[in-house]
Amino acid sequence: MTDVAGAVPAPSWRDHRDAPVDVPPPPGPADPPFYAPIGDFQGELYRRNAFALATDAEAGALVQRLQLGVGSRVLDVGCGDGRHLRALASRGIAGVGVDISAGLVAAARAASEELAAELTFVVGDARDLAAVPAVRDGGFDAALALCQGGFGTSPASDPTILAGMARAVRPGGLVAVTAFSAIFAARHLAPGDAFDPVHLVHHQTSEVRGPDDAVRAFDLWTAAYTVRDLVRLVADVGLELVSVDGAEPGRYDATGTRLEDPELLVVARRPV
Fold it and tell me: Which of 17, 60, 177, 270 is deepest in the core (most CB within 10 A)?
């Protein structure tokens, strides 16, 4: 966003009472990804997160919406512990998972040993998918970035991530991303959280539980979007919009959009 002079306006962080609040600046596009130490800390305990409990329902909806079947090949960007790829593999779908956290990739490999012929997990930066050997050849039938694990952590780098996903799928292939809803974020700001209405970024300090019940606090920044933002971004990276629907963990069906949807699920197609 720019003002009439062409300068980028400064962030305007507001708390749940709409009062000004100080927030650490989000990492820039060239900074180390803030999510890596969080994933390394959780490792195999990632599966305990509440948002991970409805993985099978999400996979079932994705199979339908992305036209996947036995023999399809999927790229999961920000794959976490590989939960979506394992659920898809049970339906005969192969895939590659990429995550910046070595701890999460190790957890994904350990949980997927029986599926080693169908699934590959590698450490890689979503901002530079072309540098990941397992991704470089492209040709995937679909590419996913769900739960703000890859796409959604920075408005500065999200366009680069989406463009890399677009290049990774074959012509006619589909790309699916979930994004935090800016409308929901602004309507439901919790005490201790902050929202920047200029750049549409949500900040919170989250306590994360790791091994031996150890608890550490981490700063989290989440890029938030309106439907219009996402439609424009899809077009900017050369994809054709298929649909935008409201979503939440466990609900990835085509339901339209509502003010109370915490996330937005975008499906787009690489032109043939």
Answer: 177
